[in-house]
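Hey, resending since the last one bounced:
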Amino acid sequence: MSPGGHLVTTAAACAVTVAATGSWTLAAAVAAGGFLIDLDHAVDYVLFERARDLRPSAFLRYYVEGRVRRTVLVLHSYELFALLAALTWLTASPWLGAYLAGALMHLALDLTFNGRLTPHSIVAFYSFGYRLAHRFDATALLGDTDLRPAPSHFWRAFFVGSRRQTPLTSETTRSPAATASC
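The structure tokens again:
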């Protein structure tokens, strides 16, 4: 999903949170889980991709055009979500629960929309262990994503996100069972 899509859905979730609970603190936690979770992309960009062009437009173009070589994405993992769910249950922390709700919304949107971009299993991709087993290699994990160049205007790229050159067909996609072994 595009960053703009995550921003809009997170803003809506925050508004619902405030309307339902009256708590701006819980809304901030939902915002952290729903939108700020993507900070791990920035960490990957600087630490693992060794990118030095820190302009937001360069960072956005790098991801929207699918130039990523390493996908560590610590905050985007089932394993972390399971740990946070256990901590939420053990501590009964409403803030942690709100963060987790926002993060799960983010993950559900990523699974839905990012799955349209790759010929490989997007479900397996969100396991940190699966990414580790593939040495965080984006091509091994996601395949040839064949993405269009990013729109030249920053805000258009922010809201449109990544788009394939050609749609995936049944010949270019593999079943999740076949993908589990790659």
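The chain has one domain: 3-179.

Sorry for the duplicate.
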